[in-house]
Amino acid sequence: MPRRLALRGDLLDFTATPEWGAVDTPALRWRPDHWLLVEDGRVAGVQPGHQPPPEGWQQHDHRGRLILPGFIDTHVHSPQLDVIGSYGTELLDWLNTYTFPAESRFADRAEAEAGAARFVDALLAQGTTTAVVFPTVHKVSAEALFAEAHRRGMRLVTGKVLMDRHAPDNLRDDVVQAERDCIDLIERWHGRGRLSYAVTVRFAPTSTPEQLAMAGALCAAYPGLYMQTHVAENRDEVRWVHELFPEARSYLDVYARAGLMNERSVLAHGIWLDDGDRAALRASGAQIAHSPSSNLFLGSGLFDWRATEAAGGAVSLATDVGGGTSLSMLRTMLDAYKVQAMQGQRLTAWKALHAATLGAAQALGLGDEIGAFEPGRAADLCVWDWAADPVAERRMAVAQGLHEKVFAWITLADDRNLAAAYVQGLPQYERRGGAMAAVP
Ligand code: GUN
Ligand code: ZN
Fold first, then answer.
1. Which residues of 290-320 are buried (b: 16+ CB within 10 A; e: fewer)?
2. Which of 91, 383, 398, 409 has a 20 to 30 A CA-CA distance from 55?
3. Domain holding 227: CATH number?
């Protein structure tokens, strides 16, 4: 018997990329009070709310709630839940003072497993159903993350972090052992269920040229691998990279020369890029995982989203916890709005939501799989309350038009608003005490 579920609510998704500044856009698909039909974990169709689903379909009636594709966080660190909100430093000091000590705990299997379970549950509790994740240098930390995501049927991209210099003893690998660990993890996890392996170079300063070359060779040897790293986040970091790699034209060029730039490359930050770097992004198809919360918290700088996109670079949105201060993609969208506002640009609700759903899916090469309510796509979705308190209720009631309402919703909503998160059509998160009406 196929598993058949019909979800009723206000469906919002995208069919194309919204233009900058447009509060009315044909890229938006808004279907208030509709049924979303889900068969065996995939979208089977959509029909108006007044038209009952076929006989025998289980019904979850979320009338009056917003149903969105699950959010995609394209850059986040699982072990760094333990360092969120660490006071007083910029990137390089922050890594040494807080982050490296916390990551060293993940050498222990029990710590890594408990941390991975805590992390994926925390993602789901914020409405994030897909993520591109940094664990730690320890093989066991990647294994634990793969296992916990697999258990929940989640799409997850991760890989053991590569770092063989400029880090404490218990956080360094070496080229030979790291390559062995990567190959073992790739063979066991890459393409298993909804999991993908990412060759995970922490950042240029913590890998030797030999390790970067090994990472590039892995990308070439195994089709479909992702590559994730950090680039041009902080001015002191950029200066250090120029000292370490004088032969490279730019920070990003260090990765290009090592064969690490391709359409499955996810580079966090990209604040201090030049036109040549943006052209290289376009030519390779690599994306920038814009991490506004982290950039503000660590005082790194203001990313120019519009210029990057105008140059043909793909941009997705990321929390970058624990540099970022919240796993919420809604908080991240609001921070992105503020970062653009500081540069005289305005990010619409549509650009923000698109970047966290269909836009990220397409940038990851998963546009046929997740990110929109198209027949055949995985039913990874979230059910949201429009308001969680009287202030938000009033704000929703006085909003004029859909853009105003959704923008104010992004601004005011948080995890209190999340009623349920479904992964492949199964509720993997339900708010405690929530009034989820299951109609037989
Ligand atoms: N650059 C290298 N490692 C990190 C990290 O863990 N967080 C951030 N924000 N930047 C980095
Ligand atoms: Zn990061």
1. bbbbbbbbbebbebbbbebbebebbbbbbbb
2. 383
3. 3.20.20.140
Q: Which letter does DSSP use for residue 89 in this model? A: -
Give me the domain span that covers residue 17: 4-70+372-438
pTM above 0.90, yes or no: yes
For residue 323 and ligand 1, the question of a CB distance below 6 A is answered with: yes
d(CA 3, CA 314): 36
CATH number of the domain bearing residue 31: 2.30.40.10
Residues 322-343 have pLDDT tens digits of 999 999 999 999 999 999 999 9
CA of residue 171 to ligand 2 center, whole Å = 16
Measure CA 121 to chain center. Answer: 15
Residue 330's SS3 state is helix
Ligand 1 atom at shortest distance from the alpha carbon of 99: 6
- Which bound ligand lies closest to the C-alpha atom of 251? 1
Give the tokens for residue 367.
Answer: 């546009």
User: What are the tokens at 87?
Assistant: 């006071």
Q: ipTM of the predicted structure?
A: 0.99
pLDDT above 70 for 434: no
**Calpha distance 57→150 (Å, rounded):** 27
